[in-house]
Amino acid sequence: xxxxxxxxxxxxxxxxxxxxxxxxxxxxxxxxxxxxxxxx
Length: 40
Description:
Blueprint (H helix, E strand, L loop, with lengths): L1 H14 L25
């Protein structure tokens, strides 16, 4: 089913141990310091 493939595709990066959050919640954008990341 096409719907199931979509959700499986989205789950793969989350399940991977290689996932790195390089902009944690509350950090600012490197070039535009008035912008911040509200979520991980």
